[in-house]
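Fold it.
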Amino acid sequence: MFRIAVAILLLTTAMVHAADKLPDGQSLDLFLLIGQSNMAGRGVPEAEDKTAHPRVWTLTKTNDWAPAVDPLHFDKPTAAGVGPGLSFGKTIAEKQPKSFIGLIPAAVGGTSIDEWNKGDKLYDAAVRRAKAAMAHGKIKGILWHQGEADSEPDAVKAYPAKLAKLIANLRTDLNAPDVPVIVGTLGDFRQPPPTAFNAMIAQTPKLIPHTACVLAAGLKDKNDGRHFTAEAQREFGRRYAAAYLSLIQSDEK
């Protein structure tokens, strides 16, 4: 009986470790997650956020692949929590049952769009991570959520040109000229209300080809006036996924 118990334990352990390893030769549909804290995620994780989907993986800090659970990001380890990335990945996996999803977390809290210029450390780190991930698949989309640091009137006016340049640089450097880019509005719980910024970012699809904008309207904050709750982030991720799927379907027509 003892030998049987030991054999079962060893087999179970082997199965667990196998499940934690990306299958050899498995190709991933890759999605780059960039922006500031609400993309990185500050929602408090709950059980469902710690539950992995068998076809959703994440690129770790050391550029290894692991089953995706929150927190995905590691920009601020004591604060990192639930962002939109995991629910986005799970939704895409369910809608595309033959796909394996690879999430590339590279957002950093508290950053302005000026810190994402090509040649600066945030941009270069994101591109390095994306290129490392591309050894296992193809870039299928970029998710961007940022703007809390750029919601003053002068910054809002300058933002569209900066965003267009950022997207153009990423598409060039990742050799993905038509890759879909999904952006999102800021939470309407912010004070003062980010009305001008949200109106501006919502125009992105009219200004930049192969982009879509997701509305954060109605999503709740953690009573801090800054960050979405875990529940709100899950919904935001589903909205990002719906926008992405709609965009690629439109591009295919």
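The longest strand covers residues 137-145.
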